[in-house]
Amino acid sequence: MATLTYRDALNQALREEMQRDPDVFLMGEEVGVYQGAYKVSRGLLEEFGPMRIVDTPIAELGFAGIGVGAAMAGLRPVIEFMTWNFAVLALDQIVNSAAKILYESGGQIPIPIVFRGPNGAALQLAAQHSQAWDAWVSHIPGLKVVAPATPADAKGLLKAAIRDNNPVIVLEGEMLYNVKGEVPEGEHIVPIGQADVKRPGRDVTFICHSKTVAVALKAAEQMAEHEGVSAEVLDLRSLRPLDEEAILGSVARTNRAVVIEEGWPHAGIGAQVVDVIQREAFDQLDAPVLRVTQADVPMPYNKQLERLAKPSPERVVAAARRVLYLD
Amino acid sequence: MATNVYMEALSPTMEEGRVVKWHKRDGDPVKAGETLAEVETDKAVMDLVARADGELRQVAAAEGQTVAVGSVVAVIVSPAEAVGAAPAAAAPATPSGSGKRETGNVATVTAPAPVAVSPLPVAAAADATRVKASPLARRMAKEAGVDLKLLTGSGPGGRVVKKDLERAPSPAASAGPTAAAAATFPVSRFPFPERTGAAYDDVPLTQIRKTIAKRLATSLGPIPHFFLTTEVDMERASEAREALNQQLGDQGKVSFNDIIIKATAHALTKHPACNAWFQDDHIRYWHEVHMGMAVAVEDGLITPVIRNAELKALAEIGREAKELAERARNRRLQPNEYTGATFSVSNLGMFDIDQFTAVINPPEAGIIAVGSIVQKPVVVEGQLTARRRMRITMSCDHRVIDGATGAAFLKTLKQMLENPLAMLL
């Protein structure tokens, strides 16, 4: 198995899917000549030409709409947003067109489209460019949402997203693009809707996705080392549909959970996860489920304040100590 | 016409009641006489029944909530009104100016809509008697048959959590030679864990514990107690019991406790001075013997009464005692079944207690405390021999019973136990 960066794993997925299916094409700002703002589309223009690697003007609503139209006409577009902070401009096409057309056409017109790009905070990009849209997009019936944390999952989930006949949101991460990991060659598909235990444990479950998987793994390491606590790290990978079975299975083993996410606390992904747990695993719980989220404020530009606002291993450990009654 | 449902005084000493369970829900049709709810009084769990036909509305006392006697806990509206007034029922309670409340337990109120429920001490009354436990701990306790009330919660606010259950030995594990005793008295299951939480727990008084505290404080303090102890030879009583049980076969068993109750009742008929109540300005000497029998129940004790024990056959006393104790433990005694004793017996023999003093249950004037029966070396007709012996201690209210009076009674009791045939005389 080759060791690849997250960026190259996505690149491999795009390349393989475009080789496999001539209907697949990539469209977005700077995806062609510049090879992508984060170099995810490196070499693709050269291989597939400007008909399939399409540079667009700075007009998110426009090219998202062209993508939806192409999907209605039978193609399988992959729309890259330079960041999800810009994708808000395209929300009308995503929410009102992509997510609704199958329903409103009485099941006649599927929209096999992928909207992808980096999501959440990087470093010191300030309030408008550091937002996690996980909960926003997961709210919409008609959309599927995935948020891979590792290169292998990035490849497997992007391939699954491209092959899916529904609109799929792929939430990547600027801070994840350089992460390295082993990636299976060729036909590696991660089914949408399947969570993954990234670290097995007995005492508490950390439920996380995307960038917070690394945060949770670090917290789990610290707890194993300093507290003798065995924490299980469950990576949701898909936010819609949610792998409720995996969540409930893990909570049944550990009886305690901390849900970690990059987004804000109010009406967040964690709120949805906690709802599942309290409803279906009430009798398994030994403590209230706690959440670790971004602070409920616009992301500060100041470096130290930004660090404090983000979920950190320290905050996960503190929450875990509370659900374990160690404090 | 709407009828208020009041928290009724379901026992003579009840001042407040805890709603254990509603049998009817808001909007349910009810008939007069039907059980609306189970209410824990200071003594037992009793039924609160409907006093009118109609539809139950405005249930204002939540399960687990403790409510003062006389408070309105719900309203019964007539069926016709129930239909018309349906939306109004959901309206928030407002001070009722339109209704005229009559006095009495079954007050009726004339009002265009269901009357507003009078203010209750709601305050979402975090019920003091509820055991806080995590859902998991609750389920584990249920599966293991462990009583959560007997555990010390180490979680926040005394919450019982998984860890506390894992420390508690299961009842099955503690079964063994003491199993019989454990079945009678809830044995503390506190292990001695390394403590992590507070050094103490503040446990609110349950209804029964409040009553015990109140009643017994009116006993040992104000009542001038004195105590008389004697040792009784139980050889012949033991033989008699064995013979009787053989005779009875599978029709039940006679216990030592039954024999002691019977003998005490019989001795009291011969010493009416001890079968009396102190009543402030007079003493009531009873012509009948109603024997109170202390029974340990979860979180307290209660003394069901065997009426006219002096007239009843041993087997009958045995059956009744067993049945009363059973219902006492299930908290299903009716008030008339635990009031009106003229004298009491308390037995800790099964706990290997040699001798103890019992606290008088006023207004009774005496109580017999029974210790265990043990083999002891004694001198009989100049010969050292092993005999089964039992120590009994009588607590006397000196305002009613003097030393010699008590001693004479105790002597008769001792004779009857040492020669059970004397009971036939």
Give a verbal description of the structure.
The complex is a heterodimer of chains A (327) and B (425). Chain A is α/β, with parallel strands linked by helices and 327 residues long. Chain A has 13 helices and 14 strands. Chain A has helices spanning 6-20, 44-48, 60-72, 84-87, 91-98, 101-104, 134-138, 151-163, 212-226, 244-254, 269-280, 303-309, 313-323; strands at 2-5, 24-28, 53-55, 76-80, 114-118, 144-146, 168-172, 180-183, 196-199, 204-208, 231-235, 238-240, 257-260, 290-292. In chain A, strands 3-2-4-5-7-6-12 form a 7-stranded mixed sheet, sandwiched between helices. With 425 residues, chain B is an alpha+beta fold. Chain B folds into 3 domains: 2-125, OB fold (Dihydrolipoamide Acetyltransferase, E2P) (Beta Barrel); 130-203, E3-binding domain (Dihydrolipoamide Transferase), CATH 4.10.320.10; 218-424, 2-Layer Sandwich (Chloramphenicol Acetyltransferase). Chain B has helices spanning 79-84, 86-89, 135-144, 162-167, 171-174, 179-184, 207-217, 235-248, 256-270, 314-329, 403-418, and strands spanning 2-6, 16-22, 29-30, 35-40, 45-49, 54-57, 66-68, 72-77, 108-109, 225-233, 276-279, 282-285, 291-293, 295-297, 300-302, 305-306, 343-347, 366-380, 383-397. In chain B, helix 9 crosses helix 10. Chain B is globular and about 85 Å long. Chain A binds chain B through residues 255, 282-287, 325, and chain B through 134-139, 154-156, 161-163.
Question: What key attributes describe this structure?
Answer:
heterodimer; A: 327 residues; alpha/beta; Rossmann fold; 2 domains; 7-stranded mixed sheet; 5-stranded mixed sheet; 18% strand; B: 425 residues; OB fold (Dihydrolipoamide Acetyltransferase, E2P); 3 domains; 11 helices
CATH topology value of the largest domain in chain B: Chloramphenicol Acetyltransferase
Instruction: Report the CATH superfamily of the largest domain in chain B.
Output: Chloramphenicol acetyltransferase-like domain
Q: What fraction strand of chain B?
A: 15-25%
From the spread of the alpha carbons, the general shape of chain A counts as: globular
Poorly predicted runs of chain B: 83-128, 172-195
Q: Count the strands of chain B?
A: 19
Mean pLDDT over the full residue set of chain A: 97
